Fold each of these.
Amino acid sequence: MDVNKNSYTFLFATAMVVVVAASLSFAATNLKPFQDTNVEQEKMQSILNSIQISVERSQAPGAYQTYIKEAFVLQRGEAIEGQDAFAIDLAKEIRKPDQERLSPLYIAEKEGETYYIIPLQGNGLWGPIWGYVSLKEDINTVYGATFDHKAETPGLGAEINTPVFEDQFKGKQMLDSNLSFIGIDVRKGDASSEYEVDGISGGTITSDGVEAMILDCVKAYVPFLKTHSGATATASLITE
């Protein structure tokens, strides 16, 4: 074959495209189980971080089994059967009307104490933000919080996943003394109450996104919070 002909160039380019496409498809197919495992382990890490358990990603499954004792899915404030809490796609659920939303709830035990972990999903300045907030046995007081993001600005909005920001949430309250849902106000440096934390300097939009995320996600749990606040909830939450 004359390598100087256009037909040779066309055939060679076609062959290369087919080979590269086949190689990429093969790699993607074979790597997907490993990618899925990494995603699951990172999710377990984040859930555990909300109750101040820090482990390597490879150790997350074992630690998750140790500390997470129950996982339920709530709808309209009541636990329902037939749903896997860990498999719920919260990014899809938050787009549904409140009455239709499926909301995972994880119950953890650590050093003889019970904690209730609520997943969060929202929007920052440049993309999705997410996290987990854990509540103490009164199901009102925040024990820990962890946040992450996809594309927030380094040194500004990206600071939501640093201890300086996350540690402020410890001890904050979700409900007031009348059991009205307050949420947590992310303020511009003047936080002073049990319902407020300081936002990130220069990261106002991302800080506002965290506040909105907490309000939007936790409101689905308010019926449960009001029912059980101030007293330990029973381990068996599934309705008959």
Amino acid sequence: MKAFLASAARARWPLPALIALGFAIAILSQYQPIFSGYAQIVLITIGINIILCASLNLVNGYMGEFSVGHAGFMSLGAYTSAVFTTKWLPDLPALFPVAVVFGGAIAALIGFLLALLSFKTRGDYLAIITLAFLMIVKSTWENIPYVGGPAGLLGVDKMTTLPWTLFWVVITILVIRNLIYSKFGRAIIAIREDEIAANAMGVRVREAKILAFVVSSFFGGVAGALYAHLNFINPKYFDIVKSTEILVMVYLGGISSLGGSILGAIIFTFLLNALEPLGYWRMVILSALLIALMLFRPRGIMGLRELPWFLPRRELFAKGVVPLAPKKT
């Protein structure tokens, strides 16, 4: 196993090559019928779920808190970006990336304000606050006629494509990966291990928590913006059921693992589509799966483990997998 990790870690080129191949196939699929319409929707949904899973993993996995309101940030990104492209600057597809960033920024701003209030408390209070936040956001969309009220927002152009989805998946993984292995990332992980000890050692606990929460909220909003321009959006979609789905993905793939987030999103999306004929019973089955995970494998499939390609060389050196610097020939 160690030899395999060493060979995989030394060969850094396969990951960029796979990403380049993925972009080539995604772009080509826009001009050639490589995938059916249904297959494209499934692949885009997997990408959106990866963004949701990785961003929530930053808070629930790496930081060790428990947020249940991620669907609220998703809805903020979905509605604000949809309003941007349908009401403020319609008929301008070139501004779709701006709309996605705008949706993520609004979600990050609300996340920052919520974090200022939430992280004055400790323990399970974050779960209660984020649940209340989710209910407030959902009720707000239902009572604003400007965005369609309970009927949802109509006329949103389908601008989310495979290349754009893959682009945002790569950006999400890259930003969260670099954050985790930065100075603030060490602080975030220290908070998970022992918040009191981290505070005593000089870690700026509240600042690290707020930063992680804001980054998580931003990418939750990005995922919502991508979803809004793929499907019809309705306030009922962004409820506790959607938050539960994201939680299942996180704990299925594994906490504190970007590779686990990718794996969890892929497995969950395929399960969700396979169980679709069962109707509402599929959520009973998926919720039971979450309970089973908490009982028998609380860390998930790849909990606290990472793919070698996502680890910096110093981490691989600490594990004894590779030398600190490449050998000179």
Amino acid sequence: MRKTSILMAVLFSLLTAFVAKAQDDLSPERKQAIDSLALEKVRDLSKYVSIIGNKSTAWSEANRVIDRAEELFMQDAEIGVSSIARPEVSYYGVRQYFERLMRLNYDRVEIDWFKIEYVSDLQRQPDGTYVGVITIFQKFRGYDKEGNLVYEDTTKKDITVYVKRKETQIGGRIIGFWDVLLGDMRVKETSK
């Protein structure tokens, strides 16, 4: 009788582990939905960058948008800043990056993102998190008071994407879901 109880406990543990692993694996349909969500978050970030960098955006509105933009990122994520005038890349925390963007010394700034696409498929990590990379190209233009173009560059950036399994409680039930957060934005190249 005791051996049967031990055997049942072992089988139950194995079954529980198998079910948990199966829930952590991404079906092709789930992966496609997560890919779409990740790309949508990057597009949202693109809009936030344009709003924050726009000199006509009210200070209070820019700060509200910074708060929203921060929610897209993992804690301690960094964003790279480059220039064609200097070879080194500087990295800033997310909030610091956006606050610097608001204070740029131009009278008008235009920032456009294009060619937003996955370059690295989501790969499962040992802790169950999936990690991928989305590449974007950013066109930056800064103008003076007279409307003359003072500075312009195009930067290729890689954004690390993290997909984690999370749980929330709704109506007394625990519901599992996949959450997508952005990580570091690394500068790959900057050109005129």
